[in-house]
Specification:
The complex is a heterodimer.
Chain A (H helix, E strand, L loop, with lengths): L3 H38 L15 H10 L11 H17 L9 E4 L2 E4 L8 H23 L2 H32 L4 H7 L8 H4 L1 H14 L11 H4 L9 H26 L16 H25 L7 H30 L2 H25 L15 H7 L1
Antiparallel strand pairs in A: 1-2
Helix pairs in contact in A: 1-10, 1-11, 2-10, 3-4, 3-10, 4-5, 5-8, 5-12, 8-10, 8-12, 10-11, 12-13
Chain B lengths: L5 H24 L6 H4 L19 H57 L7
The chains are: A mainly alpha, B mainly alpha.
Amino acid sequence: MENFPLVLIISSIVKILIVVHLLLIGVMVMIWAERRVSGWMQDRLGPNRVGPQGLLQPIADGLKFLFKEDLIPDHVDKPLYVMAPAMLLVPALVAVAVVPFGSAITVFGHEIPLQIADINIGILYILAITSLGVYGVVLGAWASNNKYSLLGGLRSSAQMISYELTLGLGIIGILMLTSSLSLRTIAVEQGAYPWQWNFLIHFPAFLAFTTAMFAETNRLPFDLAEAEQELVAGYHTEYSSMKFAMFFMAEYMNMIVGSAVTVTLFLGGWHFFGLENMGGPVWSGLISFGIFFVKTAIFLFVFIWVRWTLPRFRYDQLMNFGWKFLLPVALTSIVVTGILWITTNSRLIVGIGNVVSAFIVVSIVASLLVMKTPKPAIQDSDNRLTPSALDAIE
Amino acid sequence: MLIDYLPILLLGLFAVLFAGINLALTHILGPKRPNRVKLSVYESGVRPVGDARQRFTIRFDLVAMLFIIFDIEVVFLYPWAVVFKKFSETSGLFILIEMLVFIGILLLGYIYAWKKGGLTWD
């Protein structure tokens, strides 16, 4: 037991290096995949010149970013302007620490779990660290002293905090039936087969959580913070060179970590039909990592797919959707899970009850919103058309 | 155990170092050719009027306040959710009613905010 911290330190440094590099390579592949898949979905080619299939394009982009002029405009608040990209990038990198990306590998007689830190408050840690990202966005926007940036930053921060509620509430149903905040325990508790995974038991919460995650990562259909037609580039309008690339990297890292967390919480982590138990103590660990990797990759593909399927929300629709639809659905799922678990003790009935109750809640909210008497088109004191007035005309 | 947090500290140091090196490298490697147009505010080529330190809609503040209220409620639900299963075996009705009262109060606030138009964005 004397050399325990030494093993811990060495193994964690190795794991950190591997995970961080995987994350950075993941970001590069995502940037490439985003453009190639977009091209494929829009029946065009996408970048295909640099390297085979354009695979080296992100590296070329990265080098170019590095050698571009690091411009600090006159009108900005200098310390905050320089710090903001780092304040977004650091939480994005640190959040990956508690994600279990495989079962365990035995090396030299030491069993090493495939996770940087297995802390017992894993979910709280993830929620805490990812919400720190808001600071990077809002401070970068404010420090830029640019109207586009400020509006983008305000929109983004309001959106992120609104959807964070749903993100937090969506997990509670799982915690109730797992009794642990550790991501590893939650992954282990889900069995090897898809019908044992959490997304079936907590289906409405799963949908609400995934939607909230799209909003948290500022992806379409929730990318109002950088709606090109309205705000140029949103909160990073005034940024250039590597600072701009850091905002970009952080966004993609958040996507990757978010997908990994969703896979862990709802999609059974590294389990897949018992495949993860095959082979010896080393191979089973590597296979489980492979399964986790594939699941995360599929989920990331869904991110791109959704981007080219759904149009962007209008801002009032975005806020209405978050506060009036997702929040009640997530809250109902907690109450229903509690009541049905106490009365029946059956996961099947909890799963069915969740779906039924979500339908009821959505229809109640929808009828409340639809059946309210439409306002006259021009009602404002200064005779302006408001978004809801436009709705009424339609 | 506190030792569990050691890897997070290491990763944190690594992340800060990574961000710092990126910022420093681009500052050293990039050319320095500033001019007056580059250093001015970017507003799509239109001459800027005033700066961005202006008043903006109060709605953002309202959202922030609502967020704090509801987020604290959510955080209070976490410890309850973790012990839920353990208690459900012995005193299920008790823990259920406890939660229903808590969520009921939350719901009252939610309905009040909705009725007052706090959740409506115009």
